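TL;DR need structure tokens for one chain.
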Amino acid sequence: MKRFLLLIATLLTAISVHATVYQASSFGIKSDGVTLNTRSIQAGIDFISSHGGGVLEISVGRYLTGSIFMKSNVELRLLEGAVLAGSTNPYDYEMVEGNYGLLLAKGQTNIAVTGKGVIDGRGADCALNFLNQVHLGFLEDTTKYDRVTKRPKLIYFRECENVTIEGLNLRNSAEWTLVTDQCEKLTISGILLDSKNYWNNDGLDIVDCRHVLVKDSFIDASDDAICFKSHSAAHLCEDIEVRNCMARSSASGFKFGTVSRGGFKNIRIIGNKVFDTYRSAITIQSVDGAEVENIVVDSLEAVNTGNAIYLRTGKRWGGSKEGYLRNITLSNIRVEVPLEKPDAGYSYEGPIEDLPRNVSPAGIVGIPGMPVENIVLKNVEIIYPGGGNKLYAFRGTSDEELDSIPEMIDIYPEFSQFKELPAWGLFIRHAKGITLDNVHFVAGNKDYRPAVVADDVQGLEIKNLKTDEPSSKGKKQVVKRNVR
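>> reply
TL;DR here they are.
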């Protein structure tokens, strides 16, 4: 896989090096920040594509535009000091497959967006103008929550092949920021993404893509930072590597789902960091029928995040198709979970959770008949505040108390969905083939709960488990029920 991805990067670089470079000014593109350049930028891209390909180079200045459609064999290069600024007028945007976007593409090959410049979606103003049109009755908000689901993404590429996105500063999308949907041979490298100026601002969404390399990037988003989705039951995310990235989110750092129809296979998350993140550092889900297998997460460091690990199966939308979640290895991981809300102070924080509940443990939680299978946690340390108080919220480990934990098979999956759980470190239920190898749980304060609770687990192997909890000498830290 590494050789294949390296080959892709080499080919794309070669295409770029020998391409003809066209200056933006040649097509009458204005850098005054006032002139709407949509048609002139599009004319440049169309000309270059129709004449064998090349580079449209945009130099220092501020360039106002609506939707631009990338075309085959074209590189859009933003030099340092160049700002591509999105219009705030809703009617300056067009759609691909039901998605508004500033940069759009469908069915194109050999396309690239590169450079040290900025793409600024001006998302807050743009989103509020969309909302104003809803209130005037000209646009429809299907959610009815005054959040308007149909807002422009910063980049939306669909069914494209040989795509490079490199070096850019991506800012202030009105909705999800960088979305690649059913694309193949994709490289995302060295981007700085800061998009937390409105609701539902995912950072990077990789949807049903194959042969993907994401590396050396910084993602700061008001929703999931780096998110794999599977919108189509006929497609899946496959052969993907994410390496040496840093993520911050008012939702999850790395997320597989929530939309999980087709699947996620052969994915490696290597050498990354997560910080100040509201939900899970890593969550992997199959709740819409997805086939999920062969996932490796290695060398992940997470500081000040609401939850460490959450693996979950379910049937969110019902239906007869059952997915699976199996063959997951999480190794060399260190996570610090705080007592307080980890994204406090950001302009769009995650919602206040249902209370009362004490700090939630990591979770490996299947459903009856659809267990989470073949999971290895190796060299994992999770540091909790501890201090779980049974007078504030309580869940015991008797048969009756464990049976009282709802299955929540068709509920949107989050680590906190069960409210109080009976473990402070790790809760395992409806699982098969679970290995804990050199796992260390640390509690800063005494907690009324045991560190680990395993319920309905077929094949549980524990090697060198360590628990550090003040004033807990002689306490039973591992509770098992129906463990075979």
